[in-house]
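Re: Re: ligand-bound prediction request (bumping)

Still looking for help on this. To restate: I need the protein modeled with magnesium ion bound, output as structure tokens. Inputs repeated here so nobody has to scroll up.
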Amino acid sequence: MIRKVLIANRGEIAVRVMRTLREMDVRAVAVYSEPDAGALHVREADEAYPLGGTTSAESYLRGEKILEIARAHGVDAIHPGYGFLSENAGFARACADAGVTFIGPTPEAIRAMGDKILAKETMRKAGVPVVPSAECHDGDTSEAVARRAEGVGFPLLVKAAAGGGGKGMRLVRERGDLPAAIEAAQREAQKAFGDGRVFLEKYIDHPRHIEFQIFGDAHGEATHLFERECSIQRRHQKVIEEAPSAALTPALREKMGAAAVAAAKAIGYRNAGTVEFIVAPSGEFYFLEVNTRLQVEHPVTEMTVLRDLVRAQVEVAAGGRLPFRREDLRQHGHAIECRVYAEDPARGFLPSVGRLERFIPPSGPGVRVDTGFAEGDEVTTYYDPMLAKLVVRGEDRAAAIARMKAALRRFVILGVTTNVEFLHECVAHPVFERGEADTHFLQTYDLTGKAAPPPDEAFVAAALAGAGGDERTARGGSGRAAGDGRGNPWRALSGWRG
Ligand code: ADP
Ligand code: ADP
Ligand code: MG
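Reply:
Sorry for the wait, this slipped through. Here it is.
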């Protein structure tokens, strides 16, 4: 029985996990760093305990301290969210050793999939198609590396074995650039993951990133909950995700789903996970990696298959059987998620900090907002600058896009600069609307300075009235100079952008 769960995370995902726990009548325990003492995830918890520290390393990455709190307060299970300790096999093992249930896969599965070289080898043996690649060792002569690179073919990617979050990756179009790219990737990987190992992977041009939600239980059952299309990326990081993918035919969906389940079964996968694939314009698909945790973009799956993935995680972690059967699962309508960040697209996506003077997320039929912030909260540089995930569902893709555009125009955020206008430009772009955007979309079309339609005036007027409007619009929040509107009505409303 799981009656009390500690969430070893912060922000929107901690809050989102707590909402489900509450529905399940399970007590929610928060942990927090010093800057997060008054954060929403602390306010919403049944109990909250300090970790001390400000940086992630001093707080949310302190596995031992978190386990100590869990033991001291009768916690049955730990939900790791995403990021932080979620893909740390040592932490999952330490939980098991301490008699606390880790809500996630086994330490063995985490370890096996955390190494991309090992993961690809495992999947190749299981008959899952993988991108052609070659190893790359420390003592290799430059001739040996060059020979193996020729085998893979150019262009190619140098990738970190321990990679994640788009880090430790270098695109190499010509052989002359290879040695410098390898060195740079090794350095970045060493710094980010404490593991500098890299490998070479064939670069698939103009691909789509399509991933499958997988779920397994401790009784040997595994299934998939369809795909998510995540091709809208900036620096290999997802910005907009949707389900279903406009690129999949029913036949291809069936084939990829079967490959995802084969991948899950090959490693005896338990709990929620994601099998990421890259799909070439030809329709060939290749395994990329398995993320052994709940994914940031899991809401688009929840909104289309109409299941609560966190509830299923808790049930399966408690030893229960998979709460859904393959034949009962269907995709209903279409869902899109936009990641709303405190950043300035016009200034190279520079993170923006400050107090959320006004924060009014949109609501209405088919609109879901997952956030760890409320009005008056402070946005700092200590953690990820994601403010919210705006998720909408419509009867079909066109309806979902229309709903997303309208919802973005009603999202009132004053005090920091955000990417809301940029997101609007993305979903309003004809290539996106036609469902043709591949992973090159954001590089191909520079949407950072485009004139967008103004925000929903009535809505913003109401928000500003509530905030003592005129003074605020005149002052602005981020110090953007008055007259920096450049003919763009969103910017003219300087207070809107911050
Ligand atoms: P997704 O967005 O598909 O869930 P990502 O790989 O982008 O997956 O990572 C999700 C979150 O976890 C992001 O906030 C990212 O910054 C963080 N993250 C990913 N890998 C690591 C890692 N190795 N160490 C620390 N944080 C990570
Ligand atoms: P991470 O662990 O950082 O998420 P991934 O291997 O999942 O790393 O790759 C992240 C993104 O980089 C993919 O979603 C895709 O856009 C791009 N990418 C990765 N591998 C390839 C490849 N072989 N060819 C083209 N693009 C790739
Ligand atoms: Mg990935």
